[in-house]
Amino acid sequence: MVDRVGIVGGGVIGLQAARTLAKKEVSVTLFEAGDLGGRASGRAAGLCYDAYADPRDASIAADSLSYFRDHDLLTDCPYLWFAREDDETADAIDAQAARIADHGRDVEHLDGPAVAKRFPRLVAEDIETAAVAHNAGYIDPEAYVDHLTDRVRTAGVDVRTDAEATVTEDGDVRGDGSVREFDAVLVAAGAGTAATLPTRDLALGLYRTQALVAGPVDGDIPMYYDASTERYARPLEGGVLAGDGSEMYDGDASTYDGTTDEQFLTTRLAGLAERLQTDVELDRSWSGLCTATPDRDPLLGHLDSEVYVATGMCGHGLMRSPVLGQAIAEQILGGDPVDGFDPNRFDGTESVALPVGVTE
Ligand SMILES: Cc1cc2nc3c(=O)[nH]c(=O)nc-3n(C[C@H](O)[C@H](O)[C@H](O)COP(=O)(O)OP(=O)(O)OC[C@H]3O[C@@H](n4cnc5c(N)ncnc54)[C@H](O)[C@@H]3O)c2cc1C
Fold first, then answer.
1. CB 100 within 8 A of CB 202
2. Which of 7, 126, 168, 237 is the most exposed place for a label (fewest CB within 10 A)?
3. 234 lines ligand 1 (CB under 6 A)
4. What pLDDT, in 10s, does the model give residues 196-220?
5. How far, CA to CA in Å, does 78 sit from each of 51, 60, 81, 107?
6. How confident is the model over 163-190, as pLDDT tens digits?
7. Residue nearest atom 38 of ligand 1, based on CA coordinates
8. What is the pTM of this model?
9. Which domains does the chain carry?
10. What is the atom index within ligand 1 of the atom nearest the CA of 13?
């Protein structure tokens, strides 16, 4: 019988799990080292779509989109991804779009001229092949964190902020001035997961990813991902939010400073000016740490004794959090694990690479 659950980590995964458990009358204590949503969750770009090649992932993403729509958090917007001429990712996009459409997702293949016609605001001369997902949109991560914060507090979760915690070998939570025993403990600490579980070996890597907001941009643009340069952008308040500039990170996650590189800003602003045929000025920029696994699937499930883990979202944690937070909460209460996400499928010695590229 699980009556009391301790959760370490108040990002969107920990908050969704806390909300689900508290709604089922479980007593939940949530330990957050800083502010709720203050790490990757609050820094996300907010892109959401169900265009995944794997039917399981597509279904998780589609159900999460429904959650965002049901709670008025989503702005619908098509998601376009494309490869430039003479780029080998072009074949991968064609194959991927066909696979996604095969399992019933609303995705269509476009060539360069069709992109130009459909999205006149984008320069499309250099685009060889593209696909567009219609079940897509963006959310404001801060509004989503506020929404979850309201819900966990209303549901009676004991929320402790500025409360860094670790999980002992016995599965107790040391934090906020005491060591506490729970029926189950969930570690959803994002980039801080390894430090929270100092006695366990997890196949988890960290990478840093950057974003900026620039403008002005007139007219409608879709959300887009240029697979040839691995950069994305989406509309934001008369301008654009754009990323990526990712690289593996092996420093201390707890002291990560959230800054951006000059080179990222220069190349990204130049890329936007080219694609949108307008000069844009930088408004603000930031970066955050994401978690990655060897096979690009999350580590989500039972780890050992009373300890569960939910991390390794490979840059897609925000858009899948409604379903994955709920799934781990249900597993803690005796439900089935999500197929393929068992955290013990690795022994912790595997190497982890940067999870970018169209084959994701
Ligand atoms: C620039 C950027 C853009 C992104 N864009 C997108 C996007 O468009 N779409 C998308 O789906 N995803 C996106 N992501 C990824 C997304 O943000 C993450 O996958 C998601 O937020 C992960 O949520 P989480 O709850 O697992 O982790 P986090 O949000 O990192 O939450 C973990 C929490 O645990 C806390 N914590 C850590 N250690 C401890 C400890 N020892 N004790 C107590 N608390 C602790 C941290 O303070 C943190 O608040 C982006 C990320 C970045 C950085």
1. no
2. 237
3. no
4. 999 999 999 999 999 999 999 999 9
5. 11, 18, 10, 10
6. 999 999 999 999 989 999 999 999 999 9
7. 192
8. 0.98
9. 4-42+141-203+294-345 (3.50.50.60), 77-136+205-291 (3.30.9.10)
10. 25
